[in-house]
Amino acid sequence: MPIYQGKASKTQLGIMWYRLLGIFASSSAIACTLGLNTGVKAQIIPDNSLGSDRSIVTPNVQQQGNVIERIDGGAIRGSNLFHSFQDFNVSDRQRVYFANPSGIENILGRVTGNQASKIFGTLGVLGGANLYLINPNGIIFGQNARLDISGSFFASTSRGVLFPNGEKFSTQNPQSPPLLTIKQPLGLDSWLPPENTITNSGNLSVGQDLTLLGQNLDLQGQLQAGRNLTLQASDTVKIRDTVNNPFIAAARQQLLAQGNKIDIFALNNPASGLFAGENLLLRSANAIGGNAQFYSNGNFRLEQLNGSGGDLSSTDDPVIRARGDVSFNSYTGASLHIFAGGSVTIDSLNITGPDTTNFINQTVTLSDGVTKVPINGSVTPTVDIRAGTTAINPPGITGEPSDFSPIPNTNGNPSSANITINQIVNQGGLVFLTNQYQPNPALSGDITVTSLLGTYGGVARGGDVVIDSRGKITTPNVLNASAFDFVNFSFANPGGNITLLAQGDIFMPSGSQIVSYGSAGGNITLKSQSAIIQAPATRGNSYIESAGFGSGQGGDVTLNAPLISLSNYVQSNLYAGATGPGGKLIITANSLEANQAELSTFTLGGNAGNVIVNADSIFLNNSKLGSQTISADGGNAGNVEINTKTFTATNGGQVFSQTERVGNGGKITVRATDAIALTGISDGGIFSGFSNVVFPNAQGNGGIIDIQTNSLSLQQGAQIKASTEGFGDAGRIEVNAAKSILIDGAILLSPGNLPPSQVIPSGILSEVLPGSQGTGNIINIKTGQLSVTNGAGISTSTATDYDAGSIFINATQSVSFDGNPGEPFKPSGAFVSTLASATGKGGTLQITAPSLSVTNGAELEALTAGGGNAGNIAVIVKDKVLLAGANTGVFSNTTAGSTGNGGNIFIDPELVEIRDGAIVSVNSQGTGIGGNIRIEATRLTLANQAVISAETASTNGGNISLSLPDYLLLLQNSRVSTNAGNAGAGGNGGNVIIGTNFIVTVPKDNNNITANAFFGRGGNVDITATSLFGIGNQQQGTSGNKITASSEFGVAGTVSINNLDIDPASGLVELPDKPNDPSDRIIASCAATEGNSFTITGRGGLPVDPTTTIRDQTLLSDLRDFTTPQNRNQASKSPPPTPEFIVAATSWRINAQGEIELVAAVPQETSPQQRFNCRHS
């Protein structure tokens, strides 16, 4: 225990807290305690520089039971006492104490000789004064050296100290001390440059400040200060420990180590370390060798001599712990662990390998509660930085000395848990950055890394990167977890995994790259509770990518945040040589926004991974989302699955799946519970929408496009498209929009007069393009309402020997096609086409709906311009079909120069209205046979140059069959025609077969039913009707309305008109009762004009409506009354009916229900006339 037990302040007594870890228990220490005289005396020789104030050494002084050497005398100047010595040494097991006269606060001792001071025993002060020992020749503290000083101790190898008035207390020119008063301990800037080394192997402990100032410091043992500990060298501070003897530097307040060089290696003993109750500062002009544990109850900082950030290096595994902030410029060396209660700021980290001795072996669970990170710096090169934590003593760390009791630090409270690092380089190791490890909830904190090249590992596996932030993460410009073999220049090992978790935003600055390449790509996971934002950058300069180059599978790329905003590439890919399956791209968000981005998987080897997007709202602006195969080895593109409420794509925003070499395209599945809106094209002509493409020379089939939503709109060139230009079939398109589909408009690729090929219509398309050896596929559309307008279209086509796909439209409410914008645009419509030079068949166009309207130049068309046959058109409508407007119509035609046959048209609604130049045609302008038209409707109206045509230029005309239970109405120069040989060539006229109750025209209205020919035989016209009004065959018809079957130079056909002859007596049976004799019931003077009536009552067998014919599908109703008669005579007692005029019909009209009525004007009575009651004379 300290000998001095005089009057001391409570603070001084409180800081007598050091224990020297049992080393005092040596036998020599016991001997000294017992006062045994070893015969070795202290070598302390005063000089004569102080004159009468010369120092006096008194040996063998008894002090509290111990024998000491006491130093008295000296020159007193105010509260300062000056001593001067020729030599100053303390032998082993000796005790030398400076007397502390009353009022003395500072004791200064200088050595003016040329020998170093050797302190091998105990040096102390008999009081609370501070002690300064100055020897420019050096100071050596031996293994058993001790300090018994309750105040401060300052050891220096300077030549002297410079006082504020300019005078010196020097060892080189010894003079009497200056006449001045020193109120405070002398600061470091008061000393002349040190000239020699201070060496320590002992345990030096003082009550207040401990300062060692030398040219070099060579330190072992222990240094402990009740306040500040300062280790300063003009050259080198060297610190070492041993397996058996730890090195401990402990300060209850500030700890400073400063030198031109600092070389610390103190990891041999787990108790070794540098410990500060407040801030710990290492300051050096060069990189600091820091193989040690560092603990600060305040801030930890490395500085250069000018105050800028300092550098740290280590060959082993340094551990830095601070309850405050940690900051330095750079670190190079083995695994690094930092535990900070506050922030961490570092410019660069370069991890060269694992450590040789590791104190930390721990598995950390991240803030998501699921992900676990193993920490072991001796196995894996490791950057382990944990900021804002309340747990700065992790498992495996011994911690501060047991008797270390820092003064409560009220000034070192951290203000944030930020981690800011400019660059990290780690060769195949782990980078773990977190401010979520047992966090201080009072602190906010972001994590920013500018560049992370570090896990680009030589021949080893790429290392993992884990960043877990309570705030924002700003990602590096380059974050690379790849495994590249620089020796063989290949990716021979798997890439590392990258995991970023943030409560705030994850922000990728412009040009930021997050990648993991290897024989297998590493997984990349970004999860934020706020947003993931990729700043705009030049295309391709910013990306997230996992890629496999070998037999391993590709890594998954997972993004999860309420808001995800992307502006460049996000991909999981397989490159050349890769055989494993590709990784998935998984995006989960409330809102996904992609601006000029590409979110995709692709393969040059094995199968590409799937793309899965789950988001309430998805917005693609000039962006692509999908999967493709560019493989020559048969790898397929991945599937694309989108689940959302609303999906919007603009300016070329596109979901795609495509095959470019060998392999099939993937399936695109879109589930949008509310709406899908597709609009516009990009500057390069890429349409917004969904695309599944088989590229030229590709060997593989296109995938399915399957869309389900409530409402779907395609506008300004947006498309849903499946096409093949290679050796594979186009994919199928399935669209199910429960409420509505709007397909509107077309757009020019650039301004000016461009050919139609430069026009991009809005539409749903399936194409077999030139060069393809694959068939088209079906387009299947189900919706409530379908509207196609302003040059938009639904189409399938073939330009090869392979067949085009079919179109099936099923609407629960209505289907409408409207508009023809004019050249260079195409009309609105639905098209199944065989293009020029193609021999493949056109597909079928089938529309099923309650109503259909085709207006203002819109078309339904099954066309062949080549050798393949045109497809068929089937319109199955419950209520009404309306075709209105010039060039409007339903067409299954062949063009001039074609050799394929025309298709058939079948229309089956309740009502058909064709007017204002609209057409239904199966014409053939080529050498193929024209198709047939069959219309089954209750009523058919052709008005204002309406046409139903099955005409040909040189081949046989097609047939037209009209089955119309009510009527056929022809108005205003309308016609039904199966003419053949319109080009002055051969070909027989087709047949016209009409079955109806009435055919009605307006006289002299130029309405025609023709089956004519030029050189061939005229066709047959077969009409079965109850009556024809205003039209007949050419020989007996009304002028201007004709029914003909002629041939210009051939045999005329036949016109057969079969009137329905209905016998009024047919079906009569005997009445069940004998009727009354009417002879006495009829008055001859009762005229028909006076409202009398005649009633026929029959049994069953009559149709429900007397204006209709009996068809096999019509249900017959029995009209007889089978009720039991109650009183047969009551009939004669019934009151007479209200008189009505019976008037002969003289004309007809169409009522509001579209029905024909025979009418006549009621004659006006010229004079009152008495009406007779025919029942009574």
TrEMBL record:
Transmembrane domains' residue ranges: none
Tell me where in this chain the Filamentous haemagglutinin FhaB/tRNA nuclease CdiA-like TPS domain is found: 51-164
Cite the SMART domains for this sequence: Haemagg_act
**Which domain of life, per UniProt?**
Bacteria
InterPro entries with a match to the protein in the record: FhaB/CdiA-like_TPS (IPR008638), Pectin_lyas_fold (IPR012334), Pectin_lyase_fold/virulence (IPR011050)
Chain coiled-coil ranges: none
What this protein is called in its record is: Filamentous haemagglutinin FhaB/tRNA nuclease CdiA-like TPS domain-containing protein
Give the organism the record lists: Tolypothrix tenuis PCC 7101
